Amino acid sequence: MTSIVLGIDIGASGALALVDDAGEVVAVADMPTLNDGPKGRRSVNGPLLAALIARWAPSKAFVEYVGARPGEGAVGAFAFGRARGVVEGVLAAAAVPVAFLTPPTWKRAIGIAAGKAGAKDAARAEAVRRWPAKAALFARVKDDGRAEAALIAVAGMLKAGKCP
Question: Do the Cβ atoms of 41 and 35 come closer than 8 Å?
Fold first, then answer.
């Protein structure tokens, strides 16, 4: 039986990716959001996320562990925290086991320098290199969240000793 692992890059501009136990990308989706946050800001939408998770039915999720960033204002930090809470709550309600990976941890496992300038493009380049038949999924600059979500899933599998 093939297990399907979910990788999540948290945030309103994040994404989700399904990866099978052979390390192949099965599907990607941009984070479901609506402009219903304070002052019309984008925020992660729980019901839309729940529907996606239910449809995909992953066996495990690896989620990027996020926290407040240096120089980030209170509104931005709260929005990031809310996104994490929505993601965590939806996964818990769906009974999907979750493991969190810090950005340096998953990037090190994949071979991307943590915090380096151009890390978003490096993630897209690595995703295209790993999955050339799915390169179109990572083609746009704004597809960095998709690339990171897929790579987070692979990094989680590598850390768990379950990826080829």
Answer: yes
